[in-house]
């Protein structure tokens, strides 16, 4: 009997540890170094709302240039999603968008949401479309790295000595917990008062699939059983332990096990799974304390694993340590199928269409797409190196600007990153 638990997961190790010291002289732009692409990938682009289309357009150009250098081909399919889809089709995630996403090799999302749809009923909110997409793609593991780049230490709201050197990863459970738990809804209580309610629930259920394969040998049939174990907590815990193992070997599980039953079970399972990873140092922290420790001494953290809602909150908090939420990428991965890659920022309707957005989080999400979604490590490295090089050359969008540097808009930042990609063609060869 074979117990198989496929974990098609390639843990993230940020590439920011190398620093690019001197800006390179630009070589002429090399657009076509490989005549016939050897590999072709379909990438679904979901620009979405607000600043989404602006940042996706920058990432698309970068991917196109990388493809011409690396001898790969991207077939982009742009599909409506979020508010844009609501206006066009009446739903936030049209079936065509979900099936295009499922049929592709990877999905890159800009951002969704905006004032216009804020008061819509729940099933007609752009955010509901995003949750449907995550559920539809079964991407349960959301990796949100927060790395303070040496170039941006002064953009952090924390003191230099607190922020400098922070390099942590939030592993957020993405398709369970209170976001999806039932019962949920609106109703009235015994006093006739209106109520809204949700359920924080995590299961250690095991779905056991028995596949019987009969091989006729002439005598007795041979029976093979394949057992697939699926546990909501176990699988995210394993992803987190694997991630920590590839980083600095420290995992902090964040919960609220002093109050919530769902957290008590979470902690019990994480402790159980820990026995498979004796090389990883596991600690537990209540979420209120974790929120405090993140601003008190963020360097104590290496990898954090937590549930859907705590991960949502803590990753926004962690992003501010790095200087701007406009810098942080994310990867959402399942056991198989295409991953979903998106900046962790929202659609920023206040600056939409004004060419003010920071496209770096989306570019870094495109790098994660190349690395984890497609296994194109070198191409990913090109984007990461180009982002660092552009920062080294002093270019900043408004959110990360400080005096004496070059303030640019979204488009120009994108152009400068393209120049850096070009200039580094031979350096990364
Ligand atoms: C995020 C966002 C989403 C979430 C919203 C837009 C549904 O805040 O990706 O962090 O809550 O997961
Ligand atoms: Mg969030």
TrEMBL record:
The entry's keywords: Amino-acid biosynthesis, Branched-chain amino acid biosynthesis, Leucine biosynthesis, Magnesium, Metal-binding, NAD, Oxidoreductase
Q: Which Pfam families match?
A: Iso_dh (PF00180)
Protein EC: 1.1.1.85
- The Isopropylmalate dehydrogenase-like domain is annotated at 42-417
For whether the record's keyword set contains Coiled coil, the answer is no
* InterPro entries in the record: IsoCit/isopropylmalate_DH_CS, IsoPropMal-DH-like_dom, Isopropylmalate_DH
Q: Which domain of life is it from?
A: Eukaryota
Q: Which residues form a coiled coil?
A: none
Cofactor(s) needed: Mg(2+); Mn(2+)
Keyword check for Cell cycle: no
What assembly does the database describe for this protein?
Homodimer.
**Family membership:** Belongs to the isocitrate and isopropylmalate dehydrogenases family.
Q: What is this protein called?
A: 3-isopropylmalate dehydrogenase
């Amino acid at each position: 009997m074979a117990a198989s638990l496929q974990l098609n997961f390639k843990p993230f190790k940020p590439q920011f540890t190398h620093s690019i010291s001197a800006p390179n002289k630009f070589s002429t732009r090399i657009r076509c170094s490989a005549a016939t692409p050897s590999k072709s990938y379909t990438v679904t682009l979901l620009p979405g709302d607000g600043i989404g289309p602006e940042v996706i357009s920058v990432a698309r150009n970068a991917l196109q240039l990388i493809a011409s250098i690396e001898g790969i081909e991207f077939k982009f399919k742009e599909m409506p999603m979020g508010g844009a889809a609501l206006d066009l089709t009446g739903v936030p995630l049209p079936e065509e968008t979900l099936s295009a996403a499922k049929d592709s090799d990877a999905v890159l999302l800009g951002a969704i949401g905006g004032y216009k749809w804020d008061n819509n009923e729940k099933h007609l909110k752009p955010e509901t479309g995003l949750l449907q997409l995550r559920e539809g793609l079964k991407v349960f593991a959301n990796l949100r790295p927060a790395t303070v780049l040496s170039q941006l230490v002064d953009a952090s709201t924390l003191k230099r000595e607190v922020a400098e050197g922070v390099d942590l990863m939030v592993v957020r459970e993405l398709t369970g917990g209170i976001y999806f738990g039932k019962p949920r809804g609106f109703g009235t209580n015994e006093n006739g008062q209106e109520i809204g309610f949700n359920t924080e629930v995590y299961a250690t259920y095991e779905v056991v699939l028995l596949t019987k394969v009969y091989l006729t040998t002439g005598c007795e049939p041979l029976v093979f059983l394949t057992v697939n174990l699926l546990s909501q907590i176990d699988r995210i815990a394993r992803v987190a332990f694997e991630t920590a193992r590839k980083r600095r070997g420290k995992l902090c599980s964040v919960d609220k096990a002093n109050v919530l039953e769902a957290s008590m079970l979470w902690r019990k399972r994480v402790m159980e799974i820990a026995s498979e990873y004796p090389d990883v140092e596991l600690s537990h922290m209540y979420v209120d304390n974790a929120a405090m420790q993140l601003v008190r001494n963020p360097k104590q953290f290496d990898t954090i694993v937590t549930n859907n809602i705590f991960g949502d909150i803590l990753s926004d908090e962690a992003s501010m340590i790095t200087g701007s939420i406009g810098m942080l990428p994310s990867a959402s991965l399942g056991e198989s199928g295409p991953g979903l890659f998106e900046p962790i920022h929202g659609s920023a309707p206040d600056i939409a269409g004004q060419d003010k957005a920071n496209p770096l989080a989306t570019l870094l999400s495109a790098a994660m797409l190349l690395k984890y979604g497609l296994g194109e490590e070198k191409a990913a490295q090109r984007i990461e190196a180009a982002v660092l090089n552009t920062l080294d050359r002093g270019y900043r969008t408004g959110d990360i600007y400080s005096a004496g540097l070059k303030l640019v808009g979204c488009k120009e930042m994108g152009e400068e990153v393209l120049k850096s990609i070009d200039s580094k063609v031979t350096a990364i060869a």
